[in-house]
Amino acid sequence: MHGHFWLRTLSAGALILALCDAPAAATVGGNVDDSPVIGMSQPGNYLAGLIASADRDTAAAEAYYREALRLDPRNADLIERAFSASLSNGDVTGASALAERLLARDASNRLARLTLAINAFHNGEWAAARVQLQKDAQPRDLTTSLLTAWSYAGQNDLRRALDTLDRVRDPAVAPFRDFHAGLIADQLGNPVEAQRRLKAAYEADKGALRFADGYARFLAAHGDRDGAVAVYKAFAAEAPHHPIVVRALADLEAGRPLRPLVTGAKEGAAEVLYGLGAAGIRQGDELPALVYLRLSLFLRPGDDLTSVTLANLFEQMKKDKQAIAAYESVPASSPLHDDAEIQAALVLDSLGRSDEAIARLQAIVAENPRDVDALSALAGVQRAAKKYKEAVATYDKAIAAVGIPTRDNWILFYFRGISHERAKEWPKAEDDFGKALELYPDQPLVLNYLGYSWVDQGVKLDEAFKMLRRAVELRPNDGYIVDSLGWAHYKLGQYPEAAQTLERAVSLKPADPVLNDHLGDAYWHIDRKTEAHFQWNHARDMKPEPEDLPAILNKIEGGLPDAAPGAAKPDTTAAKSGGG
Fold first, then answer.
1. Quick check: 139 pLDDT over 70?
2. CATH of the domain at 491
3. 67 with 45: CB under 8 angstroms?
4. Contact 15, 111 (CB under 8 A)
5. Phi and psi dihedrals of 295, rounded to 5?
6. Model confidence over 81-103: pLDDT tens digits?
7. Looking at residue 481, what is its pLDDT?
8. Residue 384 domain-assigned?
9. In the prediction, which pLDDT does 14 show?
10. Which of 115, 212, 359, 505 has its CA 20 to 30 A from that of 259?
11. C-alpha dihedral over 491, 497, 501, 503, to 10 degrees?
């Protein structure tokens, strides 16, 4: 589902304003296996809380602020900071207790009221939830309307639930409104109204997974198996291989019933919060998204899609350890489990723990030897770890599992080609690049890699330059691809053309040490030696790869020889890396 219409309403609503104005402690993240060391003084713990908040370590922030608050229990600022940190850290029960104290001092705090409303949903206290939602609520606020409707659903009051939703008149949020109206009508025994509403939401945005899934599950539950299959297949035509859709189609084929999307008012409220959180991520509103997802998981613990979405948010926020923990919380029975395991392994690899990542991916492959995604991920980690022969063997298995390759499979041949090339098996690499281009003609990454490789070897130069120029045409803002063309000019001694092209590459990717190093080399050969030294110094200060640093230091010390550069093979990491 597209998120723009949710956030247009939310951004105008007081809830998001309250979230965005929350103190710094509400920022999130944290090292899930690091335990904070609590100090003895209130100022020390307060300062530690501020530092933890700035580092987006909510587990530590909550611990420090709570301890500071224990030593100064009437401090209004500490109450608010401890509340925000607790909520962002997923401690909704603790945040609810602090919300009561916060509202005693600031009755207009809508985030505190939302928290208490969700706590009431958790306890099945529908009227109490509604009281909190309706205090200080903006008229026709989307969040309030949706949750209020579900509170009426908890009391089996379909008329009031639908009346509440129908007061939301903004066409931009109509599909979301109808989606929840349909779920509520289905829950409360009105299948005719449920089908009308769910179909309206689906027809408004057929590419939204939740709309398609909810409508298909409704159809299947009411005897229209063929209709459900048609909805899923229409979605799969636009977004192939989604695990939830693949599992649902397999269940329908086997005659197994599909679980409804929600099974009660508490899960309905969780679905509201999940949708708002997912929309917030798409809009880049990390703090509201985190709060909504935490509240959703409080009402629907272990929900697979919410957990994966939360993990995606943590990755986006560079909180890798929390991302891994969220991926690991996806139940083994979920269709998203294998994908979550793969993604957790890739996060481990990004942390420099490639051996652990490889072991985890090998375990997945051992259970599912023909899982192309797992094989591809394993090969990618092996390739990044410079285990090129192992990577080739794994890509062989992935390609064999594919069977007859299609355009979508070009990337397997491309990456296997890179692995062959790095393993000094150029004829095999060349064959793979050719196959990749056969499957996907004019693919810029393949054109870049193959064209540069030919220039590097001094063969097929006319064809190579055509490929590189075409790659630049297709990806004019890709600094690595532009660098390939510039470095090809350099390799052939065409220094003015090289300098001009490499200047553009550096302007596109100014923080890359290899591109700056290349530009320095080109400047040297057109007698711009002061600028050459500047670029080499710049490259040195950008923390280049350890194997590249000595050559850079030698150039800073003594410059370059006057001989043509083709006598010594230069580094090609950046020139051939564009996406690879």
1. no
2. 1.25.40.10
3. yes
4. yes
5. -65, -40
6. 888 888 888 899 999 999 999 99
7. 95
8. no
9. 26
10. 115
11. 100
- Own/partner pairs for 428-435, CB < 8 Å, 24+ apart? 429/453, 435/405
C-alpha–C-alpha distance, residues 16 and 9, integer Å: 10
Nearest Cα to Cα of residue 421 among 394, 386, 465 = 386
Task: Read off the pLDDT of residues 462-511 as tens digits, 9 standing for 90 and up.
Answer: 899 999 999 999 999 999 999 999 999 999 999 999 999 999 999 999 99
Give the span between the Cα atoms of 69 and 60, in whole angstroms: 14
- 82 burial (CB, 10 Å; 0-12 / 13-18 / 19+) is buried
Work out the number of other CB atoms within 10 angstroms of the CB of residue 548: 17
Range of the domain at 507: 447-567
- Confidence band for 57, pLDDT divided at 50, 70 and 90: confident
> Is residue 193 in a domain?
yes
Q: What is the C-alpha radius of gyration for the chain, rounded to an integer number of angstroms?
A: 28
CB within 8 A of 574, min separation 6: which ones? Answer: 480, 483, 512, 514, 515, 518
What the block records as the tokens of 306 is: 């919410």
Is residue 191, in this structure, part of any structural domain at all? yes
Chain-centre distance of CA 98, in angstroms? 31
Is residue 343 one of the residues assigned to a domain?
A: no
pLDDT tens sequence across 272-299: 999 999 999 988 888 899 999 999 999 9
Tokens of 420: 């062959």
Integer Cα distance of 207 and 190 in angstroms: 26
Residue 213, burial from CB neighbour count under 10 angstroms (0-12, 13-18, 19+)? buried
From 301, 329, 350, give the residue that closes a domain. 301
The answer for residues whose C-beta is within 8 angstroms of residue 135's C-beta and 6 or more apart is 107, 113
As given in the structure block, the two tokens for residue 146 are 């949706």
One-letter amino acid at 486 equals G
Indicate the SS3 state at residue 458.
coil
Q: How confident is the model over 339-380, as pLDDT tens digits?
A: 999 999 999 999 999 999 999 999 999 999 999 999 999 999
Average pLDDT over residues 379-388: 96
Which of 335, 374, 334 has the alpha carbon at shortest distance from 357?
374
The one-letter code for the residue type at 372 is: V
On the question of pLDDT at 33 being above 50, the answer is no
Per the structure, the count of domains in the chain is: 2
Q: Which two tokens stand for residue 254?
A: 């086997």
- Residue ending a domain, among 301, 334, 366, is 301
